[in-house]
């Protein structure tokens, strides 16, 4: 029997599509929700049912907690998956789902709340023995605008550069770096404004900023029966504006000992807050000293989860659903990654688990943005989108040719993921996949991704979180867009326009448009074809 009969997806785009596909394999019916801007979106077309949840401003439609819960009940859903972003890490939403008599496919509200508050999370991790980044004491994590002088004193104790970051939320929002005391006040003010807008909470905390660090995260899973495990690491050091663009596993830096140590810390972090379901514990790693520090826990599925799936043979979305339904993480037989993709080793088998995953996986995020203009988001019609295909290539996307890239949402077009026996082979496979990707109509970061993959520092596995600003600052594409690409886009648009506008409807009367006719119409000449 399926774990649930019908699941509502409180999200959009590629993650909604990803969840729909996982549910299909489990025999679970799906309900999509959509705003006015998404009425023709791929996730709406793929779901078994779809519910309109709001008009403009479109970005706020997916934050309507009451409307989403009501829609789930009205459509007979028994469970809700939040995806990532929007309400995925909102404890009030998780509680509202539970109060409505539905199952929330995610962690308990108390765990979301504990880890969502960066100030409180620091306290909990210190108490659990998990190393944290040097920062301010808990007694001064909630300071007021009038405390600038005291704030400067705290920063001097920590030592510059200082990272100012939102106490609530994540995803790179509400974060600023102050290189010295003169920059601190402006950095705090800017971080607070962005945090208030993104999370409705303008509190920030101060931490020591490690400029040449590596960003390494550990995937954890925990069931309702006391089992908590980790699925090894993902390296996420390639970032722009504190947001990841290239992720891989395993990390080129970690050995078995460091991997086991970080994995144990991640498990301890999850257990400290009574965590269940899938989550990710993120660390900053000093590559020289090999010291690592907890920075936050994402209480949801991560955008980069496919690299873990490709190296383990597991479907993390299906595991989320099964854990939410009460199923335990059980020890499998031989060849667990292929023969038993639903079961996982329990805590006693954790020590040997690090050796089970196979090969190397890399994910590149394809964005509609202009890297040469500060990564400004791009919008418009995606005339043609042809994702790459081939052995070891996977594409998670929420768009197809003809879709409109909206200004209302994150400009992620697709995640391109590859798997190969080792890292050099995975890099070559990704370079080939990017070369074969076609995305016409909006600017994308395709060329920028190729430049990052080809850089000697990345190739050597030595990239830090400052890779982009140190090695690709001022990057610009080689030359203009080829004429044949522009011509192809024009032909595609012209053909689609003719097909869509073959007939016009005016005041209820159907009129044939000569501009959309396919009969060979010519002004002053015969219309038949010779």
User: Domains counted in the coordinates: how many?
Assistant: 5
Q: Percentage of helical residues?
A: 25-40%
**Could you name the ranges where pLDDT drops below 50 across 5 or more consecutive residues?**
138-143, 331-355, 499-513, 524-530
CATH architecture heading of the largest domain: 2-Layer Sandwich
CATH class of the largest domain: Alpha Beta
**Residue-averaged pLDDT, rounded?**
85
Coarse structural class: alpha+beta
What is the assigned CATH homologous superfamily of the largest domain? Answer: ATP-grasp fold, B domain
Short account of what is shown:
This protein is an alpha+beta fold.
Characterize the structure shown:
The protein is of the alpha+beta class. It is built from 19 helices and 24 strands. The strands form seven sheets. It has an eight-stranded antiparallel sheet. A five-stranded parallel sheet has the order 3-2-1-4-5, with helices on both faces. The radius of gyration is 25 Å and the shape is globular.
């Amino acid at each position: 029997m399926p774990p649930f009969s019908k699941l509502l997806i409180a999200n959009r785009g590629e993650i909604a599509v990803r969840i729909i596909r996982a549910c299909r394999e489990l025999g679970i019916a799906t309900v999509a929700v959509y705003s006015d801007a998404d009425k023709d979106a791929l996730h709406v077309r793929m779901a078994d049912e779809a519910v309109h949840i709001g008009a403009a401003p479109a970005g706020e439609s997916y934050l309507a907690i009451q409307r989403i819960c009501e829609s789930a009940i009205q459509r007979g859903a028994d469970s809700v998956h939040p995806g990532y972003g929007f309400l995925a890490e909102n404890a009030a939403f998780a509680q509202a789902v539970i109060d409505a008599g539905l199952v929330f496919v995610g962690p308990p509200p108390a765990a979301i709340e504990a880890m969502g508050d960066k100030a409180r999370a620091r306290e909990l991790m210190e108490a659990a023995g998990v190393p944290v980044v040097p920062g301010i004491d808990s007694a001064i994590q909630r300071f007021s605008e009038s405390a600038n002088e005291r704030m400067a004193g705290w920063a001097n104790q920590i030592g510059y550069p200082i990272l100012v970051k939102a106490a609530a939320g994540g995803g790179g929002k509400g974060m600023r770096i102050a290189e010295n005391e003169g920059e601190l006040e402006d950095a705090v003010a800017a971080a607070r404004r962005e945090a208030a807008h993104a999370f409705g909470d303008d509190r920030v905390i101060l931490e020591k900023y490690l400029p040449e660090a590596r960003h390494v995260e550990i995937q954890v899973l925990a069931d309702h029966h006391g089992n908590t495990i980790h699925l090894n690491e993902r390296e996420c050091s390639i970032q722009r504006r504190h947001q990841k663009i290239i992720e891989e596993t395993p990390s080129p830096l970690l050995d078995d000992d460091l991997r086991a140590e970080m994995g144990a810390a991640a498990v301890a972090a999850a257990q400290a807050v009574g965590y269940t379901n899938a989550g990710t514990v993120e660390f900053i790693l000093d590559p020289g000293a090999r010291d690592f520090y907890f920075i936050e826990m994402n209480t949801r599925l991560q955008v980069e989860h496919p690299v873990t799936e490709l190296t383990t043979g597991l479907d993390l979305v299906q595991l989320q659903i099964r854990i939410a339904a009460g199923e335990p993480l059980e020890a499998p037989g031989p060849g667990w990654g292929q023969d038993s993709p639903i079961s996982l080793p329990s805590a006693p088998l954790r020590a040997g688990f690090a050796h089970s995953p196979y090969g190397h996986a890399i994910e590149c995020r394809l964005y509609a943005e202009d890297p040469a203009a500060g990564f400004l988001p791009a919008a418009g019609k995606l005339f043609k989108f042809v994702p790459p295909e081939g052995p070891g290539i996977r594409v998670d996307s929420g768009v197809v040719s003809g879709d409109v890239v909206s200004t209302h949402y994150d400009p992620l077009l697709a995640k391109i993921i590859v798997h190969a026996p080792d890292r050099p082979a995975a890099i070559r496979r990704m370079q080939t996949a990017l070369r074969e990707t076609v995305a016409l109509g909006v600017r994308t970061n395709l060329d920028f991704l190729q430049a990052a993959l080809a850089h000697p520092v990345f190739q050597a596995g030595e990239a830090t979180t400052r890779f982009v600003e140190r090695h690709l600052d001022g990057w610009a594409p080689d030359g203009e867009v080829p004429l044949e690409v522009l011509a192809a886009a024009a032909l595609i648009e012209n053909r689609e326009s003719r097909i869509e506008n073959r007939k016009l409807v005016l005041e209820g009367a159907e009129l044939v448009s000569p501009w959309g006719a396919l009969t060979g119409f010519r002004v002053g000449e015969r219309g038949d074809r010779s």
